[in-house]
Amino acid sequence: MPRPEERFVTFTLDGREVSAPENAMLVDGAEFGDVEIPVFCYQPKLGAPVGACRMCLVEIEGIPKLQTACSTPVKDGMVVHTQTTRVKEAQQSVVEFLLINHPLDCPVCDKGGECPLQDITFGWGGGKSRFAEPKRHFQKPLALSPLIAIDRERCILCYRCVRFSQEISEDYQLVLHDRGAHTFVGTFDGHPYVAPFSGNIIELCPVGALTSQAYRFRARPWDVEGGGSICTLCPAQCNVTFTVRDERVLRVLGRDHAEVDDGWLCDKGRFAYQSVHVDERITQPMLRDGGELRPVTWERALTDAAAALTRAGGAVGAIVGGETTNEEGFLLAHLLREALDSKDLDCRPAGGPAEALRVALAQPAAQATVPDLEFAHAVLVLDCEPVDDMPVLDLRLRKGVRRNGVKLAVASSRPSSLDPNATATVRFAPGAGEAFLAALNAALGGGGHLDELAPRAGADADEIRALAKLLRGNGGDRDVVILWGERLTSGARGDHAARGLLNVARHLGLMDGREGAGLLEIPAGTNGRGLREAGVLPTEDGRDTAAIGAAAAAGELAALYLMHVDPLEDLPDRDTWVRGLDKASTVIAHAAFLTEGIREHATIVFPAESYAEKEGTMVHPDGRLQRLRRAIGRPGDTRPEWQVLSDLSRRLGADPGILTGAMISTQLFAAVPYYAGVTLEEIGGRGVRWPQRPAAAAYPQADLGPFGLETPPLAAHANGSLRLGTFRSIWASTEVSVSPALRFLTPSQRAELSPGDAERLGLRQGDRVVVGTNGHSVSATVALRESMPAGSVFLETSLGVDGANALDGPLVEVRPA
Amino acid sequence: MTNVLLFDHIDEPGLNTIDVFERRGGYEMARRALGLQPEELIDTLKASGLRGRGGAGFPLGMKASFIPKGTMQKYVVCNADESEPGTFKDRELMQKNPHQLIEGLIIAAYAVQATKAFIYIRGEYVLQADILDDALIEARRAGYIGERIFGSDFSLDLHVHRGAGAYICGEETGLLDSLEGRRGNPRLKPPFPANQGLYQGPTLINNVETLATTPVILRMGGEEYAKLGVANSAGTKLISISGNVQRPGNYEIELGMSSRDIIFGLAGGPDEGRSVKFWFPGGSSSPVLTADDLDLGYDFDSLAKAGSMLGSGAIIVVDDSNAVVDVALKLAQFYRHESCGKCTPCREGTNWTVHMLERIRSGEATPMDLDIMASVQENIIGHCLCVLGDAMAMPIASMIVKFRAEFEEHIEAARQRNPLLGAVPISDEPVLIAGAAH
Amino acid sequence: MAEFASQPIDPATVRRFEHGSRVPGWDEAVDLTKDPAIVPDLATTPVPDELRSAIEAEMAKYPDTRSASIPALFHVQARYGWCTPEGIEQAAAVMSLTPGYLVSVASFYDMLDLQPVGKNRVYVCTNISCSLRGADDLYDALLTAAGDDPDMFVRGFECLGACDIAPMASINGAYVGPIALDEVPTLMAQIRAGEEPLPAKQLSRRACVDPKAHAS
Ligand SMILES: Cc1cc2nc3c(=O)[nH]c(=O)nc-3n(C[C@H](O)[C@H](O)[C@H](O)COP(=O)(O)O)c2cc1C
Ligand code: SF4
Ligand code: FES
């Protein structure tokens, strides 16, 4: 899909010549002439203008009726008037009409002071009321959801919220009821509006009709400051502004970035700031003493940690969680390699392909950008669920399909929420990504026989054929983006899957550096990409995550260093980790919360900074270096973690020689060849995509194939039992379960089954079941899904004891509890 | 005989069946049309001078010629929503001669090369929709609807779609949204339906009467048809007359006939002893005319020149036993009820106007309210997304202008009756908003 | 000056504030114990076979199945008497829409009822042309005659497109008029008995008034 090109034209605005992009809506075009045209319903993020509120009427010469500037494109030579009596009278009348039903309870309204209706009334209203009739009164405020309150008296029916629900998030839960003057915003039969992106409607509302339950009455616009940073709760790294009052984050707002988040946030990003200020947070260093973690001084904790690490004598493994900054990862790698002489360091929860393949997949030329998803001819969503794994991308994909006619294809094991938008879908057996890629490779003209390979993936050959056709298109000249999840190339056969993916990418021309096409990986952790680039990977014969776990369980590692990760929550193979954590004599953790693994097994705990307190950088999955900037002070005794790491290194004899956070960034930029020359200033508030900088040429070369592919293993045959598939819900995170506003979303384990399998097993919706394999089991509630492929059961990971991390597949038994 | 084109033998028993219809020459024109080039058809329609019969009066031939050529899926939609108060002509046509509409649709669809068509009929017309459904079954069976109709290469899929009660679905873009399964909110224009209509495809939308006239035009020839009527108002028109007349009903007239002859000659005028106080010449959306205007020719230009419009061709006569305020209130209540609510001036303006009229009736108004009411109408006109808002504001504004004295008298009389009189302060000063912004 | 037919209005009965709409909800908060109303899964939403096939047949008529919303809601209404939440959920499951979408559509249209109503739908036109010929009195008379009969749903309606038989009513879809006030008892009795209401006044039997239509 060609991106729109901007061409500037000249038009006359209030008697002056103004140059603006052709076909920009007049409202936007007028800004090039410093003229503000008031709007309510117009919001370009919501798509095509609807012209409903009539606030933006202007006079255009040659057209007898006043026209809506929000929907009239700028044309060369157009003559527009925004200051004539006719226009002013129209504007005043619209304000008058809108105020008829508006309660004017501004003194007790959350929006007061940042309210477009106030501003427009002041700027364009008539200043008098002729409305002698009584106002309408309703109960207010009412709950629209646990997160959002609605005040129907204040609503001016601009439709922004319902358009968001219907055309952006497409959840179609928030709708208009009735018609005419009786129209009101609501949901079906009193159901709450709960959806992954619901909170955006609060920000969209131009009056105080939709307010945040968590923010209501907490502050006035003049009480607060805004701190710009990024959200680190998932790989999307949306740009946010923290609303801060008295060193507390009270709210998170989007900081629109068209190339990152498109101006939207998910509800986790919007409300989980509450986790910053909860009592559960660890704000002091702690030491296990008599079986219990007790607060200690920094000196004691650091001394003990240094001593324990020295004692371990190199038998130290470190696991780094996704919310770690590049700088922290870089420093930890320094600590391990330089001070402890260990190579056992990994940031990937389930390992990954060999270094050469990893490098090949991340070739700058083959990287797609986030906006590419919106303009490509076709996008393949492969073995990931954007709404859970990188939520804000879900909106971008929907936008591409809806507005630009992008052809979407979904290839996954679990039915995707994007299936209804997809032109092609392929289901393959859980864990059979490699076989699927081999089959797709064959369908695209690579080696092997599709009809033999498809069954190995537990997939339908015709579906794969249709997918290949869609991706290849009629001509060869198509921009395809493959959006894939890290899990595809992790695990024991990750190398084979990586080769398959590279072959497929090559067939589709993605490795040639074509603009607008390429690969985009969703890493498992927020900063997965940055951490790999900062070198948080096992070197040479170093151990990866799984091997570290196994080694610890085998008693081969004396110390474990856990940076923002709780293996029992976040990593597969819970059993091994329980043993490993038990065996290791020292477990040092940087953590904000005492989750199970930390609470039961850590020997030394350093308090972790929250993302609102941190400074540093991260790398967005599409290669954009972004900055975290500190918005509030650190609570209690919390120290900058770079300082802790640096301090430890120094104590262990490998002083990295840094005095400020910025100094490590500089070291990091110097250490990674393809970051050469990057500065914090260059990254600034908008970030910078390193693959687009000249230094990207320094990226290592790698063999890009084509590779001969091994015959993939046959997907497990269900044969009475069921294949186990897992996924991690957007809501499965500690930040969610400790945030009072979001706690209600914390998932509980459910076993998703096809109706056929359930019937065979004598199970019904809502039944309690036990799902297990050789000795391990979790309990769950049956959730039937019509679209679930027969023969598989899906469970969630990261739910503590009931998380699917406890099970190892490929087959499980499901029986009534 | 020439001026009975649509109502010719309308009550013949069984005309709604394909047998009788064909016996009377039905479907011959559709067959003939399929042998012509689409452009020839459009030229004939243009030559006929036929203007849309649904309200806006846009020339059919011109609208058909706006439909782009090309292979994209195109649609024809028949607007059978007929909800304009006072209008009931399409009802009689569909009920008694459904095949004529189907034939007209075939001709129009072929002319613009649309292969899918819908008749959007208001849900209240149960009988008529059932009759159309039956007629469609017959037409399909005869091979006139479906694949390769009349043995030609042209295929046409046609369905009846029932609305569910909303005046705004008569507005063509509201109709399209409703037909797409949404709330019937009008769309912003441009794009016009001819370019992006149903399912974003080019769409020709026309009224029942307009489409049912196309076979007549084909039979007569465009030029011949154009000779009927007067300048800019070619042909015959079905007129629905209702209200205070002795013989309400549908009449087919040649355009240009004197309004007096219609109201008195055909419909018998008001009851004995009553006189015409005012009349809506083209449905409730048209500004009212008074007894002084009765000699106007009933055609597009004459009515427009008199400050009103021909609209859907529905004359509502109000005699001197009625108070203008009562009619105004009914009118405003109707538009308030039917406003879709999408745009501000219509949603709030209709609501406010009802409130003001209620206050006038209850004796809580002053003459100043009349000025406010007039200015509110001005603030609606030309500022809405579609013209429903204008459709209330124009007649109400015309009533205030033409019957101001009566309004004032009414205000005073109601105030006299009001037991709370005196308790309601009268002020000439508008009340200031207490700090709208701060 | 014209005499005023207008009835004086008691100011005490003039509403002091605007309230209410045709569907309840303005004053209602959501029920936080409910789950969000996403697209109902057919695996967990049983749909009667006839309803499902009726809706699917409607969907087949249109290039975009969503167009079948109104027909589907009519089927729900025919089956359950009104658009019940359960019925809407069933239609939503068949059409892969959210029930919110359908309730939004239903609430826009006058003929779709979102609350239980009597099974006999009597729509009395109270628009201009009919009211000029006594529709308001007819409406009152019908309301009174219906009393609190739960089977009787009498409501005023905007112009039904039959001003030639004013004052008129649509009785379970059949147009009848002009209805004289003294015919109201008979009419009510016929509706209650399930008989054809006022057969002589059925629009279906009415001839065109235009003399020319019969002349030639
Ligand atoms: C509020 C409103 C209601 C309308 N109602 C109808 C209607 O019921 N029937 C109709 O044919 N046209 C109606 N129209 C006119 C249509 O928008 C459109 O102009 C017409 O269907 C075009 O067909 P024609 O050119 O054959 O008249 C209405 C217009 C408006 C603004
Ligand atoms: S004028 Fe009225 S009916 Fe038309 S769009 Fe505006 S609110 Fe809807
Ligand atoms: S901003 Fe243009 S109509 Fe609302």
3D architecture notes:
The complex is a heterotrimer of chains A (817), B (438) and C (216). Chain A has 817 residues and is α/β, with parallel strands linked by helices. Chain A is 28% helix and 19% strand. The longest helix of chain A is centred in the first third of the chain and has 16 residues, at 85-100. In chain B, strand 5 and strand 6 (233-234) form a beta hairpin. Chain B has a 5-stranded mixed β-sheet, sandwiched between helices. In chain B, strands 3-2-1-4 form a 4-stranded parallel β-sheet, sandwiched between helices. Chain B has a two-stranded antiparallel sheet with strand order 5-6. Chain B is globular and about 75 Å long. In chain B, helix 2 crosses helix 9 (208-220) and helix 14 runs parallel beside helix 16 (388-402). Chain B is built from 17 helices and 11 strands. Chain C is built from 8 helices and 4 strands. The relative contact order of chain C is 0.09. In chain C, strands 2-1-3-4 form a 4-stranded mixed β-sheet, covered by helices on one side. Classes of the chains: A alpha/beta (817), B alpha/beta (438), C alpha+beta (216). The interface between A and C is large, with 46 and 38 residues. The site of iron/sulfur cluster has 14 residues of chain B, from helix 14 and helix 16.
Keywords:
heterotrimer, B: 438 residues, five-stranded mixed beta sheet, four-stranded parallel beta sheet, 11 strands, 43% helix, disordered C terminus, C: 216 residues, alpha+beta, four-stranded mixed beta sheet, elongated, binds flavin mononucleotide, binds iron/sulfur cluster, binds FE2/S2 (inorganic) cluster
Largest sheet geometry of chain A: 7 strands, mixed
Structural class, from secondary structure content of chain A?
Answer: alpha/beta
Question: What topology, given as strand order, has the largest sheet of chain C?
Answer: 2-1-3-4
| Share in helix of chain A | 25-40%
Oligomer: heterotrimer
Largest interface comes to: B-C, 91 and 64 residues
Rg over C-alpha atoms of chain A, rounded to the nearest angstrom:
28 Å
Structural class of chain C: alpha+beta
Show unreliable segments of chain C. 1-5
Largest sheet of chain C: 4 strands, mixed
**Which strands sit side by side, in order, in the main sheet of chain A?**
15-14-25-24-23-16-17
Radius of gyration of chain C: 21 Å
